[in-house]
TrEMBL record:
UniProt keyword Transferase present: no
A Pfam family: Peripla_BP_2
InterPro entries with a match to the protein in the record: ABC_Transporter_SBP, ABC_transptr_periplasmic_BD, Vit_B12_bind_prot
Protein's name according to its UniProt entry: Vitamin B12 transport system substrate-binding protein
Domain Fe/B12 periplasmic-binding: 28-275
Signal peptide coordinates: 1-17
Lineage: Bacteria, Pseudomonadati, Pseudomonadota, Gammaproteobacteria, Alteromonadales
Length: 288
């Protein structure tokens, strides 16, 4: 109850700047990204979604929602024909020209643009207000905050472990400071070997990975990228030599929704294993 009261005090007083409030609570919602669909289902507003975009696949019910767009953009003619009373877009994912056009058309608009772990809470509460699901949204937000804080506290004093996060294999890409994933690695005390790269999502070489000697490699499933990388060809890398290569569902890590807690828990567990393995190697004991 304490969490609910604090969250309502913090966020119920005013709407975010990127909100064009509908006249009444929204009942015909178009959610133009997978994570906004998840957020709406999480607060009990999933049944009000009348259209979405490709890759909106959670929960299972979301797979039945009609599609009106994807990476190529939004089919604005279909959007208008649906007469939505709320359009929820992803500020960093949907095309800027589509968002601008939706705004020009005068449709009630909410822009989800989470850049920090705390922004998930803001999205939940604001969407709850717009859809009339405030009580459920506050409950979900409070649970998320409590679980996130517990994970942060549990890992705060752990020894850093050197990690390479494989975002994509061909071309080989990773994450750095300024990326969403960097925040998660920091929570789990992962020392990102490319944190100091010039861009948030840099392309790197195998030689560069070898030079930085990561103790663990985290991969994600790469749908649409069949030329996956075989790390076993690089036994000089400690993570390869010590069999510390793990795969985690990217949706759990990279979608800013309450399910992020599951992905963060898995990430921290993986880094704990790598940390334990490293200590065993240093002490000459068999790896756990």
């Amino acid at each position: 109850m304490r969490w609910l009261c604090l969250l309502l005090i913090m966020f119920s007083a005013s709407a975010l700047a990127d909100v064009a409030t509908p006249a009444d609570v929204a009942k015909r919602i178009v959610a133009l990204s997978p994570h906004t669909v998840e957020l709406l289902y999480a607060i009990g507003a999933g049944e009000e979604i009348i259209a979405t975009t490709d890759f909106a696949n959670y929960p299972d019910a979301a797979k039945q929602i009609p599609r009106i767009g994807g990476n190529y953009g939004v089919q604005l003619d279909k959007l208008l024909a649906l007469s939505p009373d709320l359009v929820v877009v992803w500020g960093d994912g949907n095309q800027a020209q589509d968002i601008a056009r939706i705004r020009q058309l005068g449709l009630p608009l909410y822009i989800s643009a989470p850049h920090t772990l705390q922004d998930v809470t803001k999205d939940l509460l604001q969407l709850g207000k717009l859809t009339g699901h405030e009580a459920k949204a506050a409950q979900v937000a409070a649970t998320y905050q409590r679980q996130l804080q517990a994970i942060q506290q549990h890992n705060a004093s752990k020894t850093p472990v050197k990690v390479f996060y494989q975002l994509w294999s061909n071309p080989l890409m990773t994450v750095a400071n300024g990326s969403w994933m960097q925040q998660l690695l920091q929570v789990c005390r992962g020392d990102n070997v490319f944190a100091d790269a010039a861009t948030a999502y840099p392309q790197v070489s195998l030689e560069a990975v070898l030079m930085r000697q990561p103790q663990v490699i985290i991969k994600t499933a790469e749908t649409g990228n069949p030329q996956s990388l075989n790390w076993q060809q690089w036994p000089e890398i400690p993570a390869v030599k010590n069999q510390q290569i793990y795969t985690i569902d990217a949706d759990l890590l990279q979608r800013p929704t309450p399910r992020l807690v599951q992905g963060l828990t898995q990430l921290c567990q993986v880094l704990d294993r790598a940390r334990s393995n490293h200590h065993s190697v240093l002490s000459g004991q068999p790896a756990q």
